[in-house]
Design brief:
The chain is of the alpha+beta class and 247 residues long. The chain contains nine helices and eight strands. It has three domains: 6-66; 82-112 and 213-247, no CATH class; 116-208, Chitinase A, domain 3 (Roll). The strands form three sheets. It has a four-stranded antiparallel beta sheet. A two-stranded antiparallel sheet has the order 1-2.
Length: 247
């Protein structure tokens, strides 16, 4: 994209693609993403930039830049910009090494635990008698578990053959969780009674508890340590500046 491309002209003032990009980048993240995907919304952003120029021209024509209020706002903006640039300079010295990331990972294993989980399918019906009939049909080979889920289960997961995906402890009601984690892979267990009715459960896979590999969390650790260091640098510099300017 050519950022020097002129997207609108007001008199002898040209509004470029770069100015529109800067405006979009100032928007909340979800609106920035929407602007990338929606040409109509992007045009609305162009229109808003044009409107800003038009209002600025109006303010200049009415000599609003010669008022005390204008001077006050300019002073506040100047102070904020200077502060932001100064903080950027302080934060530029903050670095997090690979060794620091690795040390944090090794010294804090409790933060990187991945609990055990199971992948399971289920069939949910209202009555125990019905649940037993479905189980007998599956065991007799009259229908597969998945087909029975599609035709008999009252859970929305029936559309996917009863597939619930993977879940860890604490995500399901206790009776269901206990049965699912105790079941052998491939076996159909039940009926299991819960507050929702009676279930048949088929566990597809089990994943034991483990520690998340360092490579998967390295950048997350780096970002966290960087934010921590920036906070410390910010506080230390504030105290230093207090001693310098408020003594």
């Amino acid at each position: 994209m050519n950022n020097e491309k002129i997207v609108a002209t007001i008199g002898n003032v040209n509004i470029t693609e770069a100015e529109v990009e800067a405006f979009i980048n100032s928007l909340p993240q979800e609106q920035k993403m929407y602007a990338l995907q929606n040409p109509q919304f992007r045009q609305q952003c162009v229109d808003q930039v044009v409107a800003l120029h038009l209002y600025a021209m109006m303010g200049e024509e009415e000599k609003l830049d010669e008022t005390a209020e204008f001077d006050k706002l300019i002073a506040a903006a100047r102070r904020e910009i200077l502060a932001q640039l100064a903080m950027k300079k302080v934060f530029a010295s903050v670095e997090v090494s690979d060794a620091e990331c690795k040390a944090f990972y090794e010294e804090n294993p409790q933060f990187f635990q991945q609990g055990e989980s199971v992948s399971a399918k289920h069939i949910l019906v209202k009555e125990e008698e019905e649940c037993l009939k479905v189980l007998a049909s599956i065991n007799a080979g009259e229908q597969t578990f998945e087909d029975a889920a599609k035709s008999c289960s009252t859970c929305p997961s029936s559309a996917k053959g009863g597939d619930l995906g993977a879940f860890g402890r604490g995500q399901m009601v206790p009776e269901f969780e206990e049965a699912a984690f105790a079941a052998e892979i491939g076996a159909v267990v039940g009926p299991v009674k819960t507050q929702f009715g009676f279930h048949l459960i088929k566990v597809e896979n089990k994943i034991e508890a483990s520690v998340v590999p360092f490579e998967q969390v390295e950048e997350q650790i780096r970002m966290s340590l960087s934010q921590q260091k920036q906070g410390e640098a910010y506080g230390a510099k504030v105290e230093e500046l207090k001693a310098k300017y408020m003594a």
